[in-house]
Amino acid sequence: MYKEKPDQMVSVRTLFGIDSDLEVPAFSKRDEYVPEIDSAYRFNPDVTLAILAGFTRDRRVMVQGLHGTGKSTHIEQVAARLNWPCLRVNLDGHISRLDLVGKDTIVIRDGLQVTEFQEGIVPWSLQRPVALIFDEYDAGRPDVMFVIQRILERDGSFTLLDQNRVIHPHPYFRLFATANTVGLGNLSGMYHGTQVLNHAQIDRWNIVAKLDYLPREEEIEIVVARVPSKNTERGRKLIDSMVAVADLTRKGFAAGDLSTLMSPRTVITWAENCEIFRNPARAFRLSFLNKCDEAERPLVAEYYQRCFGEELSSSYLNSEENLSNLGSEEGAAS
């Protein structure tokens, strides 16, 4: 058992700017497994407190939300500010039980080939003060999920059958997960490959936090932070229109008018592509519109027209020199 443990207590109010008297254990030194701090990241107070409860009280915390809301990044950025080692495992279809538990491998010892057991990510993490994140939790295979279920109990031990060995979790091992559907399956049609999870397993998660998209002004600030060249009066006006389009796609999706929506990640990509193509309309087509169903593109084009004050088709076909309104001004400024 590794003896490392947090060596200081930090104030949530000081570190995260949240009105709370909670103090959280943290490490004074960083190591190679601590994520890099993203100074532009915006924390949701409720979700942040839920994650901090996981670090402080050893709660199993699941963060649920639509794609692009920053679920995994939220956990990583909390860990980064606590200097807490953090590992992220994406539960795609290629992750197997052996990847999590471990397997026998052939190694060279004193010039001879010998078989040696190599620990998987679960037993390796359990023995260390590590925050383990299971990303896309609702996409995991059934055999993989039942391996995870064995460690969901806060004091649950983990048995390596091949080694006749029982691993007791490190006192500062922490477990988190992110999911799009909370184990309800692909009800919306957006998340193909997600599974209907065993309710007994979902019940073992102590805290389930829901992360929604940020308020409009905060989303604008994040996009501007990611694309600093847009931190001008014209640039901010352009980003405001972009976020307005994104907001309309989200409302359209909620109303059943669209089968896809624009996430904050896509808005950032759109802003970055404006730097490349010097044309917001062309960048919009290449960043989002071409991903939409053909039958829905006229509605998405209408959203663009409402926010930018010009037809998408005409603004796309015009050259950069002939662009008008906000799009042309920003294209020239870029």
The number of helical elements comes to 14
End-to-end CA span: 55 Å
The second-level CATH architecture of the largest domain is 3-Layer(aba) Sandwich
The name of the CATH superfamily of the largest domain reads P-loop containing nucleotide triphosphate hydrolases
Main pleated sheet: 5 strands, parallel
Rounded mean pLDDT is: 83
CATH topology annotation of the largest domain: Rossmann fold
Structurally, the number of domains stands at 2
Domain Cobaltochelatase subunit CobS N-terminal: 4-34
GO molecular function, one term: ATP binding
InterPro entries: ATPase_dyneun-rel_AAA, CbbQ/NirQ/NorQ/GpvN, CobS_N_dom, P-loop_NTPase
Pfam families: AAA_5, CobS_N
How would you characterize this protein structure?
The protein has two domains: 8-210, 3-Layer(aba) Sandwich (Rossmann fold); 216-333. 40% of the residues lie in helices and 16% in strands. The chain contains 14 helices and eleven strands. The chain has helices at 12-16, 45-57, 71-82, 97-101, 121-126, 142-149, 199-202, 216-226, 233-254, 264-277, 280-287, 297-308, 312-317, 325-333; strands at residues 8-11, 23-26, 61-64, 86-90, 102-109, 112-119, 131-135, 158-160, 165-167, 174-179, 207-210. The protein has a five-stranded parallel β-sheet with strand order 4-7-10-3-11. α9 (233-254) packs across α10 and α10 packs across α11 (280-287). The protein is globular. It starts with 7 loop residues before the first strand and ends with a helix.
